[in-house]
Structures are given as C-alpha cells and as structure tokens.
Design brief:
single chain; 416 residues; alpha/beta; six-stranded mixed β-sheet; three-stranded mixed β-sheet; 16 helices; 13 strands; elongated
Length: 416
C-alpha cells in the first residue's frame, strides 16, 4: 500500500514559532490578505449603515483611501492602505478593527496571518485571531464579514480553475493526492494536485480538484478538464506515486506521456514490507539504484536488490520489481533534471510549509472551503518555487531530441 500524504492543521497560539518556509509564504501574501480583510470589513460597515438622506443620496459612502503606511511585523514591513468612509451627515466614523490608526508595529501579526488562512474556515475563530494582533480587548469581526472574505478566496479559485491554458506548454507534470487532517463532507475526499514545469523551466500550479479516494474517474475528469481548456500538447513525463488512479486515467487523455514513479513513495512502500531491523540496509540499497549515474548501473543495483531479498522477503522484492521500467524512466531525460523528476518532492515540500499538525477543526469542512484555502496557500508558495536546473534542455525535449543516461544521443556519438 502506498504511503498517504496527510496535512493537518494546528492552532499555532500566540507564542508558537512559525517555520521559515511558511514565513516566506506569508511575506509574499500578507499585503493582499490584509487588503482583502479590510475591504470585507468596510463593505460590512457600509451595509450596516445603509441610510438615505432627504435628497436621495446615500448617507455613508466610500471616500478613497488613507495614505499608505507600513506596519513593521515579524515577517518584515507590510505596506497597507486603509479605506476611508465619509458620513454626509457628519457623525458616523469608520475605524478598521484590523488596521486601527495607532498600529505601527506588531510582532504577533505573523501569528495572525496563518491563523486567518488556516482557521478562516470557522468564523468564530477570527475573534481569537484579532486578539493575537490587537490584544485581548480587540473587537471581533462579524460572521457576515468573515463570510465575505472567504467568498473572495472562493471566487479567485473559481476563476483560476476556469482559466484558459491554450498558451501553456508543460514539459513535466507532478501529481499527488493530498489528504487533510480535518473533517470533510465526505471522508473519502482528498485534494488532487497537479504541478507543471513550463518550457522555460518555471514550476507552476496547474490544477487543484477534490477527488474520491484518488480514483481513476476523479483523475480522468481533472485531466479532461485541462485538455478542454486548451492544454493540447501532451507533457513529456508525469511523476507520481504508483498507487494513484492517475496512471489508469493518464493514457486515456494523454496517450504519449511517459510515466516516472516517485522513488520516495516506492522506498516507503518497499520498507513497509521489511522488518525494521533491515530498513537502513535496504534503504541504502534502494538509494544506490536511483542515484546511479546510468541505466546500466541502476539495473545492476536493481538486480542485486532483488536477489538479496526475493528468497526471504518476496513481497518487498516484488513491490520493487513490478515498477522497474517506470522507476528508471528518468534515464531517458536530461541529467540536469533528475533531481527534479525522481520524486514528487515539489508537491511534498510545498505542502510541508503548511504542515501545522494535530488540530481538530470543529464541525465539518466543506469542499469549497478546503479548495479555496489550499489554493491561497499554494499560489502564494508558488512564487518561491525553485526553477529547474538546465532549463535549456527543455527545448531539446520539446523538439524530440533523444537522451540516453541523461546525455543527448548525438553528443554521445560525437564523443565516440
């Protein structure tokens, strides 16, 4: 059985440290998040004071923005512009609870921002988030204001999901099914994640969708959606865990895309079929395979592993042997790319930045809320994703150049 990617959520608390990787995500998304939160707040304020003067004009109206100011936070200075409201009758004033005029420095805002992301699923938790920023006397935001903010995220995710892909060319795809440590509407639901490498070597989030037990039907629907929206050119290689229904769905939609099984998942699967006393030795043997400099060397280590474990541990040997060809597919691609295509680490490492574990979210979380939150986190993290090594080699793959043991075949002929 495959290992499962599980992400949980934890109440970080005011004193809880924030991981460096998460801080980088927050640094890029803080300004947008705060702006959205204050916009939702002022919209709610205007709705509460919807009055009409004798001349037919609205009494309380928007009146531009206050000058931009920077709040010094634990993740660096964050520039903000608070909305301004005018009361034509003169005695109603708007003051943002999130950005009151006197706030210039806050160490606890680094606690507030992940809280707004991760606990934003429950409207009652936003009062506690404001306490982290403004102190115990901070006023809470109303449930309707919080609902407006969440709807902004959902709308962004919906527009992104429907975007045109006709101008996109993805050479590699990484795929995985991510299970979250919260109660979903259906316990069998997970989030299907697809990342891609463009022709320029940039990694991008390609698709997010809810799926049923990572089934063939769920993956087929996702892939067909990509094709319908313009992804006409088939990727050269897809990388994923061997247990996914994705592998049955892939040839039905992209018949010429090759498969590379994730070595991290395969290593875990093989070790699960061995006693713990042998894990260190077996892991080293598997490492020799996927770090070999050529297919010939990898095959030699492959044969040695099978011979060493087949007699006493046939299930472990069979688990490895059944995916031999797809585990070694990487040798037909540029050596500069091996570090990227051996595993699904691009997905794993992204979601590790939000791996705040063990919280028990009250109530049942809807599919739309989970997708909106994952979308916000992933697109914010996307800005810091590492580009592929040797991006110029991607053009060779696109034009059909053949590679053997990571080197262009024509270069090998010249060397010979």
């Amino acid at each position: 059985m495959s290992t499962t990617t599980v992400i949980g959520f934890e109440n970080p608390g005011v004193a809880a440290p924030v991981a460096d990787a998460l801080t980088e995500v927050l640094r890029t998304g803080a300004r947008q998040l705060l702006a959205q939160a204050v916009e939702a707040e002022v919209t709610e304020f205007l709705a509460q004071h919807r009055q009409v003067l004798a001349d037919g004009r609205s009494r309380v109206v928007r009146n531009g923005y206050l000058p931009e100011r920077k709040i010094q936070t634990g993740i660096g200075p964050v520039a903000v512009m608070a909305p301004r409201v005018r009361d034509r009758a003169g005695d109603i004033r708007f003051t943002s609870a999130l950005l009151p005029p006197y706030v210039r420095r806050s160490r606890s805002i680094e606690t507030l921002l992940p809280w707004l992301y991760l606990k934003g699923l429950s409207t009652g938790d936003f009062g506690e988030a404001l306490v982290a920023l403004l102190g115990k006397d901070a006023p809470g935001l109303s449930a309707s204001t919080i609902s407006r903010l969440k709807e902004v995220w959902k709308d962004e995710q919906t527009r992104w999901r429907q975007r045109d892909l006709s101008n996109k060319r993805y050479v590699y795809l990484w795929v995985d099914g991510v299970h979250f440590g919260v109660r979903l509407e259906d316990a069998s639901q997970c989030v299907l994640v697809v990342m891609g490498a463009t022709a320029e070597g940039k990694k991008e989030l390609v698709a997010l969708s809810d799926g049923y037990r990572e089934s063939e039907e769920s993956w087929r629907e996702l892939l067909l959606g990509l094709k319908t929206r313009g992804m006409a050119v088939e990727p050269a290689l897809a990388i994923g865990d061997g247990a996914l229904g994705f592998w049955k769905a892939l040839p039905q939609v992209f018949g010429h895309t090759r498969s590379q099984r994730c070595w991290v998942h395969k290593t875990a699967n093989v070790l699960n079929k061995l006693p713990k006393s042998l894990h260190a030795k077996a892991k080293a043997g598997l490492h020799d395979i996927w770090m070999a400099p050529s297919r010939e060397d990898a095959s030699r280590h492959f044969d040695h592993f099978e011979k060493a474990y087949t007699q006493k541990y046939p299930k472990a040997a069979a688990c490895l042997a059944k995916d031999r060809e797809t585990l070694l597919a990487l040798y037909d691609f540029p050596a500069e790319h091996w570090v990227h295509i051996r595993t699904t680490n691009p997905i794993e490492s992204t979601f590790a930045t939000v791996r705040l574990r063990t919280a028990k979210t009250r109530g049942c979380v809807s599919r739309d809320s989970i997708l909106a939150m994952v979308f916000k986190l992933a697109t914010s993290a996307e800005q810091g994703w590492r580009r592929l090594n040797g991006p110029e080699r991607l053009a060779d793959i696109i034009t059909g150049v053949q590679f053997k043991d990571g080197v262009k075949v024509e270069d090998q002929k010249i060397a010979a």
